[in-house]
Design a protein that fits this description.
The chain has 464 residues and is mainly alpha-helical. Helices cover 72% and strands 6% of the residues.
Length: 464
């Protein structure tokens, strides 16, 4: 493999693994903050036990997320030094604020939340949990501000061939950020909710600590349903934004080689032949693409061949501006399909809970246990579409991926680091899954009638 391919593979592998934990941490701490608040308002011990129990899994996720996140910034210097030199003036501000403000805010109030439990009023503990949740969301905001610049460069002037930031507020009001940020946060809330829901469903199947896990399950499914609906709306806004900002990505996500005509049909599935630049067959839904793109029954969408010619005039000939169509096409459908399935499962769960028949439906509980994987797959597919669909650019319209790779890194360097990183991440992943299963099986109490000390730093619960 070429150095560029190895560098891209390494970054994809490490970033995907890191992004398993980011949305999980954001979603879990949001649910924990709700439980802390319910304890303050309702004064029921069960809500305190819930906050402490789910807080254990949050801390596991947060710790591994921090470790894996540090590596992402190191890789900019190791494998993508040319990219770092090109965007350094722009990236410095949001990444510094993320580290100095958001991360320290999270760390500080995690300390207050854990160690102030028996020393501070319970409303202060609840407030500290909300401030941790706010810190995780702010951290996502600054990271996404940097990523949105890569998708749609704003607030800069080109000096000596490099972008120089001249309007900081433009980064925060970037149209790409305004649609990407809410979509990512709602996806994170759904992730945390489905993990809580899946673990709760498992314990309901086993008929353990029923009151505890019924309450946890109900909260998680309410959050999941609300988040799922908001994911759909924010995703729709993002698709409409792509029509003007990155039409090639939009066309690739539909495997649209030729101009669609008016009205535009949406391909549910297609047999894509990228070599011949056509679809051998497809199942289309009339009018659907016009609705997706314009909120109208009318409107045409340009195909990739037309956009390729437009880009050649704008950015120069001799470059293939069409991304890997099969990857973009199917990742979009996996993301949207699993997102829709999560909404259906949340609705069904809340319906049967209201009817008080949920626990009489073991098939649904088993499906919900397996469905813990759904948000992780959907999140990953969404980011794959976002990043692959931008190719061949690292900074859209300004700097290509081929220009970004470090010139002095060898294939041997990359192979060694890929093996080292992936091996380390495999070990971390196994530890995370093992510890989560251990905490979930142990439950919040030692026995069905005896309440145990569910302190967040319970050494026995985390003992390997």
């Amino acid at each position: 493999m070429e150095i560029l391919d190895l560098a891209r593979f390494q970054y994809a592998a490490t970033t995907i693994f890191h992004f398993f934990f980011v949305p999980l941490s954001i979603g879990l701490i949001f649910l924990v903050a709700i439980m802390e608040t319910l304890y303050v308002v309702k004064k029921k011990q069960v809500y305190l036990d819930m906050a402490k129990f789910w807080g254990k899994i949050f801390l596991l996720s947060f710790a591994i997320g921090v470790v894996t996140g540090i590596l992402q910034e190191f890789q900019f210097g190791m494998n993508w030094s040319e990219y770092s030199r090109f965007v350094g003036d722009v990236f410095g501000a949001p990444l510094a604020i993320e580290g100095l403000l958001a991360f320290f805010m999270e760390s500080t109030f995690i300390g207050v939340w854990i160690f102030g439990r028996d020393k501070l009023p319970k409303w202060v503990i609840a407030l500290s949990a909300w401030l941790v949740a706010l810190g995780t969301i702010l951290s996502a905001l600054w990271i996404l501000a940097a990523n949105s610049f890569m998708q749609q460069p704003v607030g800069i002037e080109i000096v000596d061939g490099k972008p120089v930031l001249n309007d900081f507020m433009a980064l925060l009001t970037n149209p790409q950020l305004l649609v990407e940020f809410p979509h990512t946060v709602f996806g994170a809330l759904a992730t945390g909710a489905f993990v809580v829901g899946g673990i709760s469903a498992y314990n309901l199947l086993k008929k353990r600590n029923l009151d505890f896990f019924r309450r946890s399950f109900k909260i998680s499914m309410i959050i999941s349903l609300i988040s799922g609906i908001l994911i759909a709306f924010s995703g729709h806004m993002q698709a409409q934004h792509l029509m003007s900002a990155q039409p090639m990505k939009m066309a690739a996500s539909e495997a649209l080689w030729e101009d669609s005509g008016d009205p535009a049909a949406w391909s549910l599935i297609a047999n894509i032949d990228a070599d011949e630049m056509k679809n051998k067959w497809s199942i289309d839904i009339p009018f659907a693409l016009s609705i997706l793109a314009y909120d109208s029954l009318h409107g045409s969408v340009e195909g990739m061949k037309t956009i390729q010619k437009t880009y050649e005039k704008l950015y120069g000939e001799g470059v293939d501006y069409i991304p890997h169509v099969e990857t973009v096409f199917w990742s979009f459908r996996i993301m949207a399909g699993f997102g829709g399935l999560m909404v259906v499962l949340s609705l069904a769960s809340l319906y049967f809970m209201r009817k008080r028949t949920l626990e009489a439906k073991p098939w649904l509980l088993k499906v919900l246990v397996a469905s813990v994987a759904l948000p992780f797959i959907a999140n990953t597919a969404g980011w794959i579409m976002t990043e692959i669909g931008r190719q061949p650019w690292t900074v859209f319209g300004l700097f290509t991926t081929a220009q970004s790779v470090s010139p002095n890194v060898t294939a041997g360097n990359l192979l060694f680091s890929i093996i080292a990183f992936c091996g380390s991440y495999l070990i971390l992943g196994i530890i995370m899954v093992y510890m989560t299963i251990r905490v979930a099986k142990k439950g919040p109490y030692d026995g069905p009638d005896k309440k145990a000390d569910v302190d967040l730093l319970d050494k026995e619960a985390f003992n390997l």
